[in-house]
Structures are given as C-alpha cells and as structure tokens.
Design brief:
By secondary structure, the chain is mainly α. It has four helices and no strands.
Length: 132
Amino acid sequence: MSPQQEAPDAQKHRHGLSRLWHAYRYSIQGLIAGWRESAAFRQEVLLAVVMLPASFWLGRTWVETALLAAAVVAVMVTELLNTGIEAAIDRIGPQWHALSKLAKDLGSAAVLLSLLLCGGIWAAAIYQNLLR
C-alpha cells in the first residue's frame, strides 16, 4: 500500500480528535472533488456566493434567514450526493443497464426537487418581503 493510500477501514480504528481531523480532511477532499467533477456543483457554489449573503438581507427574522440559507445549501448537498451516485455507477462500467439509468435518473430528480424547493422558498420570500 502506498503512503497516500490507507486501509479501507482505517477510519473505523481512529478515535477522538484523530477521527475528527481525518473526517474533516475527507470532507474537504469531497468538496474539492465536487468542484472538479461537477459543472453543476460549480454553478451552484457560485450562486450560493451571492444567495447566502442575500439571505441575510432578505430574511426578516432569523428563521426566514435560516430557511433561505438552508434551501441554498440543500441544493449543493443534493448535487454532491447525485455526483457520488453517478461516480459509483460509472465505476461499475460504461455499459448501459436499466438499474444504472434508474439510479442516475433518481439522483437527477432529487436535484430537481431541491432546486424547485429552493426556488419556491426564495420566490415566496421575495414576494412577501419585497413585492407586497
């Protein structure tokens, strides 16, 4: 095993701060991989750079602000999960299979639903707080 590669179950044997530190590093590596591998994730991050600060301006209460911000983050979380599903399916092989298509379609549908939810929350907040 190379120094860069560790045992598949290495994290199960860690405890305390070591486990937290390694989990944090894996999470950062996941964000970097999401940025590299998914054009959709890059677009959503760029929108989040605008929308997250805007949620503090648009939200009238901390609950509204949290809901607006959470909807934006939920889109990015869903996109990362979808990218993970696609990567796992692609690892299996390039050939077409009904279950592979189903998994990818379901992941895509989850992203669509998160986008619709986010759009609905933001549209309602804009209507309620700016247009009324």
